[in-house]
Amino acid sequence: MLVVRKQSTVTERPQALVLHALGRTHKEIEATTRIKNDAFKKLLRCVKDRGYAVGDAVKQHFMENGYSSSAEIAAAVAELLKDTPGANIPSRRTILRWLVKEGFKNVKITFKPGLNKAQKMRRLEFTIEYRDWTIEDWKKVV
Questions:
Q1: Burial of 94 by CB count in 10 Å (0-12 exposed, 13-18 middle, 19+ buried)?
Q2: Which own/partner contact pairs does 122-127 have at CB distance under 8 Å and 24+ positions apart?
Q3: Distance separating the N- and C-terminal Cα atoms of the chain
Q4: How many Å apart are CA 2 and CA 9, to the nearest integer?
Q5: What value, to the nearest 5°, has the Cα angle with vertex 129 and ends 124 and 135?
Q6: pLDDT, tens digit, for every residue of 56-86?
């Protein structure tokens, strides 16, 4: 069974932060936004690193993903330079070459699927069976 994790959207993230600032529980936040507790904790750490403090206004740059494609960066630079006479607009490839030169790498975001019920049961049975083993018992196995 393949487990696909849904990334929270830019509309769900500020909603979760506002609910948190209002003192809502993690269950209430998850019920409203579908953001799981662990994902919310990660979100909270990330936005705090970007300057957010609980109760502050939730700004757009707190919510954005931390990654962009070279095409997105090139489009943003082109938008910034569109009114500058004589400005050279860099292409996507130019942006990509510069990023590589600066040490950035092209990576694919992957997700590790969680354990299913059968795997969890096998692990539990294993731990119950061998819970009384000593270090000396384990040394004989290795």
A1: middle
A2: none
A3: 32
A4: 22
A5: 110
A6: 887 776 766 666 778 888 888 888 888 888 8
